[in-house]
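Sample log: Glucokinase.
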Amino acid sequence: MLVADIGGTNSRIGILKNRKILNIKIYLTKEHKNLYSILERYFSEVFLENLTEEVYLAVAGPVFEDKAKLTNLGWEVSVKELKKKFNFKEVFLVNDLYGLALGASFLSDKDLKTLKRGKTKKKFPRVFLAPGTGLGISFSIDEGIVLPSENGHTLFCALKKEEYAFLEYLGTLNEEKCWEKALSGKAVSLWYQFYFNQTLIPEEIFNLAKKGEEKALKTVETMVELLGRKASELALTFLPEGGIYLTGGLVSGLKEFLTKKNFLDKFLTGYFNNPKMDFLLERFPIKLIAHPYPVLLGALAILRNR
């Protein structure tokens, strides 16, 4: 089975064989005009003795009636067109966070790092929070029962003067005043731009922060606190006794900082921002996913369920 995770920044494609993902290639998504051209490139670069007849495609956007729209790319994908172009017999087209939640049962203990222990041993429900190019969120009720969402596009709720000012700033840029613009890879650059009137890409900001540069550190602190706050909002919405799972490009960038007490404390400050509900928020474990391709594991779950 061909397996692919098509994100707003990176696309990861491989072949699933004997429960292992082989021949993985990573492409910059925006270097291609559409999803079909990415698949064509993969087939041109990876020799397959027998062309695959099945494909698992996880995409960064909502999926309805065998069609998907990739929110931050404007691309449209259809199962019918995929079958026609590549002679696939079976296409599993899913939202990327749906695939992430499906595949989570294949994560081992070494694939997970605990940020906060919980007070429950239940396995479900679970919440998945993945800030990357966009802000992906999904929720699993039980094994194989997953609800994807576009919750990242809900309006951002400002709690401080600087956050109200940030929303006004987003307005001047004609940007959506939503959570995705406050907590994502792009948000790192937006906050830095808002604070210091200077444009840097997220990688540059993280590298400066690792060197102790104050402006970059302030931006990272904002990201860490907002990550905790969003996790708290989802905890109170879904009561996820099976845990809150964090992944995505932004989390990868913040991972090194979250190993340090001052940044972890900032994250927990954001998470425990409603003292009245501390007794409840304490129940839920929070784990960081360290597996490099967790969305692709959803293909294993589809095969198992079938």
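Observation: The chain is about 40% helix and 25% strand.
Observation: The first strand starts at residue 2 and ends at 6.
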